[in-house]
Amino acid sequence: MILIARSVAGDALGFATISFAPFAWTGSDIAFLQDLFVSEAARGLGAGAALLNAVYAEADERRAAQVYWMVDETDETLQRFYERNGIRTPYLRYMRTPWPW
Questions:
Q1: Under DSSP, is residue 90 helix (H, G, I), strand (E, B) or coil?
Q2: Residues 65 and 23: beta-carbon distance below 8 Å
Q3: CA 14 – CA 5 distance, rounded (Å)
Q4: pLDDT 10s digit of each residue in the chain, 101 long?
Q5: CATH of domain 2-85
Q6: Partner residues linked to 15 by β-bridges
Q7: Helix (H, G, I), strand (E, B) or coil at 18
Q8: Residue ranges per domain, the chain?
């Protein structure tokens, strides 16, 4: 699912991509925030927080047990944004092979 943040004039400011999947621990779905992007011109104006709140609202409407996402450990700006709007967890992330970049 793609959620789009728009200005009053209708211009796209950013988007969030989320997916839902069954979660064995709770028996209900869990929401994964795959991408959250805000255009440079719209950063700092609340579009990111509005998108994240829309993600939370969609998850609540679908009765998802949780919303989760990942952040690059070197992106301190993005970490600060998410720490204002979420909870840092102690989980580690593993993957089959490293990203090519």
A1: coil
A2: yes
A3: 5
A4: 999 999 999 999 999 999 999 999 888 999 999 999 999 999 999 999 999 999 999 999 999 999 999 888 899 998 899 988 877 888 877 878 877 77
A5: 3.40.630.30
A6: 4, 37
A7: strand
A8: 2-85
